[in-house]
Amino acid sequence: MSLWRQFTRGLRSLTHSSQADRDVADEVNQYFEEVKAELMSKGLSEQDAKRAARLESGSMAQVRDQVRSDGWENALTSFAADLRFAMRQLIKHKSFAATAILTLALGIGANTAIFTVVQSILLAPLSYKDADRIIALNTRWTDTGHQSTRVTGPDAEDVRARARSLEAVSLYSGGQMGVQLRDHAVFTVVTGVDPDFAHVFGLQPIAGRLFNEADAHRAVLVSEQFARDNFGGSQAGLGQTIHIENEAVQIAGILPEGFDFPAKTQVWEALPERPESRSRTAFNYRAVGRLRSDVSLAVARAELNGISRRLEAAYPADNRKKQLTLVLLQQAMTGNARPTLLLLSGAVALILLIACVNVTHLQLVRSMERQRELAIRAALGSSRWQLMRPVVAESLLISIAGGLFGIVMAVPAVHALVAIAPKELPRAAEIHLNLWVLAFTLALSLLATVVSSLLPAYRATQVDPSEALKQDSSRGMTQHKATVLRNGLVVAEVAATFVLAASAGLLLRTMATLIARDMGYQTAQMLVVDADAPAHTMEDAQRVVRQYDILFAQLAALPGVEHVAGIMGLPTGEHGSNGYYKVKDSPRAAAGHESQADFSVASPGYFQKMSIPIKRGRDFASQDSYDNQFVAVISASLARQSFGDSDPIGRQIQCGLDSDNWMTVIGVVGDVRQESPAAKPGPTLYMPMAQHPFFATEIHIALRTQVKPLVLMNAVQQKVLETNPQIALHFTTMDAMLGSSIATERFRAALVSSFAGIGLLLAMLGVYGTISYTVAQQRFEIGVRMAFGAEKDRILRMILRHAVRLACFGVALGLASSLFLARLIAGMLVGVRPLDPLSLSTAALLLLLTAIVAALAPARRATRVEPMLALRAE
């Protein structure tokens, strides 16, 4: 029979079952009539022929059942019957069903929530046109392995001119800055881009036009949201004039909502196609490109390696050991988030494993209770598959119900994940449940069905009817293999939980270390105002510096304010710079080994305001003006790096921040951790605002307060706008900035600790179930012991000892697994060794206490066994 005929016949049988049964009955009757006729033709009487036909083929009912058992539709019907029977059994055993479903729902829900994040960030393609052909350019030094996501202008220009594998290369740079509108100023992300930017991303404006070469520093593109928020709509925003750093630019086009590359940009300013920075050592740009459709990534990388070698030969001083590399844009955008998301994926996979082990254990307990039923089925001739089907059907229903409840749990979990995620998490706005996530959840449910039913189903096929009918759990006569299997599952569960608990301990220890670290400055009671004043010429910048001096004095006079200072380069802030510097009368460093430092521009009183100690010399003062000798204050680590044990006061230093002027060192201050508590204190070069006015227009104003910092926000805003209404403002606190700098570490620690808590809960359920079943199984034995004089305390210790023994085996296995895990998370730890004794011992102690608490109730139940009742029990 052809497959199509089998399918259509089976479909007809399912949709018209009554007619199918009549057809089968007619077919069987016809078969018997033909056999009877054939036998009668051989000389048998009608009665003898009918009897011979039945002896040969069985009764008509048996033949009808045999015919019905053939075909895919009959297997489906049989399994549906098994599902109905399994549903009745689950309704009958509500506690078992509820516990198993809730256990799987926790595991599947956690996995669904994390997979939603992983799929949206790491797996889903970017929404740009031909996103798989967009690449990012990086710079790598072959001698040190150091890699930067930035490039120099001339290097990128050479790639654009020489790389035949790339259709277009675009440079961009920018960040948070003030944008001045007609009647107010706003803080937003502004990015300068060249005309090739639109080509790389395949952009089409929803209104207006794209850039051309003549638009450099004259036109901008804005997002649809920016136009709507500030002008009422896209068409209303077209042609409007705005100011960026006191530069008047006109809105030429509106980009569609949803495009905000890079870093949530709202305004894209036109830059000239030829980079304005001509230094091959100034990494002022990031770059993206588009691969040609007929070129592979490997070919493009090979071509870029050749270009890098030619540039190194042409510019041996600036391009020594420098190699230009490329990665797909999606990888470049998500690279920093990948380790954290993979860690969380591994953690929730352990949660699911623990949940499946728990359900497997519950199923095994169920199968022990069903031994007699299975034995009777086997004795009546059921096949192995028929014995397995009820167990698999129950597991399937439990897993599907767990998957449905898991999705319900995953919805708020995803919202919570997005809410607590660090702001640097890429593509956070794209995180949502979708068909891929639902398919993943379905796959998880089926996987859970297989994993949780494998052992119970196999055990069902191993039932020996004669032995099973002799078993009596009330007299401790269950099989030894069953006990070993249940204990082994609990050990595996405890081991997986130990791995989670140990990981959580390491990450929490890292967080505690970061929070307790000395930053080199005081963060408490500090209001931080991100201020950006427009300035285009040197005279504009100097006027802004004078306005800031007046503003600082006015703010210091506000009630509740102790000190006020301004700085470009506030620790953990967004504004800052770094680069090479030189010391006068010192030997010239070899190429690639020049001294580097962070550059900051500060007002007088900044070090006092931040409680950064002045170790030698003095602070900036009013006489350190633009017309006087340029001066600098250096950090202690820079003094050690460049001056050793000699006195740096009076020595001269030069950097490429904005001029080639030599600066006289007037002071040495303590080191600070610039980026975050995880960063090491490094060399820092401080310069006065008055002598570097262009870098003093976009600063942080830091106010040390005697009251809660944000209480002063309105008063400070009023004073700032009275001084200059074109200054764009953004308020925060130093504590909030510090918290943001370790948001990724906090995110990891919080989630892994939550998963460890779920693991502990599931492990407790596993231990409780095992010990409860053991007590029930040993009730007769306990009664005998108590009848012969065993005290209740001894019974209690016996039960608890069994639980502790299982926990110890699990901890030992988990400890061995943690040795492998330590290498995987070593890069996420700060100030903590991967095999930290405190974290490991705490996790072990926690698991032992969990086992004891879980076993306590069953153990106390065992002490209340009445010997005479136990001995009389049949």
Q: How many extended strands?
A: 22
Number of domains: 5
Mean of the pLDDT scores? Answer: 84
Q: Within the largest sheet, what's the order of strands?
A: 3-4-9-6-8-7
Q: Work out the strand percent.
A: 15-25%
Distance between the termini: 56 Å
The main sheet comes to: 6 strands, mixed, barrel
> Low-confidence parts lasting 5 or more residues at pLDDT below 50?
473-477
Globally, the shape reads elongated
Radius of gyration, taken over Cα atoms and rounded to an integer in Å: 38 Å
Structural class: alpha+beta
Instruction: Give the helix proportion (percent range).
Output: 40-55%
Number of helices: 28
How is the secondary structure organized here?
Blueprint: H1 3-15, H2 17-41, H3 46-57, H4 60-68, H5 72-92, H6 94-123, E1 134-141, E2 147-148, H7 153-162, E3 166-180, E4 185-193, H8 196-201, E5 207-208, E6 219-223, H9 224-231, H10 234-237, E7 241-244, E8 247-255, E9 267-270, E10 286-291, H11 297-314, E11 322-328, H12 329-334, H13 338-369, H14 371-379, H15 384-420, H16 435-461, H17 465-468, H18 480-516, E12 526-532, H19 538-556, E13 561-568, E14 577-583, E15 596-602, H20 606-610, E16 614-617, E17 631-635, H21 636-643, E18 652-655, E19 663-669, E20 684-688, E21 698-705, H22 713-723, E22 728-733, H23 734-741, H24 743-777, H25 779-787, H26 792-825, H27 837-863, H28 867-872
Parallel strand pairs: 4-9, 6-8, 15-20, 17-19
Antiparallel strand pairs: 1-2, 1-10, 1-11, 3-4, 3-7, 3-10, 5-8, 6-9, 7-8, 12-21, 12-22, 13-15, 13-21, 14-15, 14-18, 16-19, 17-20, 18-19
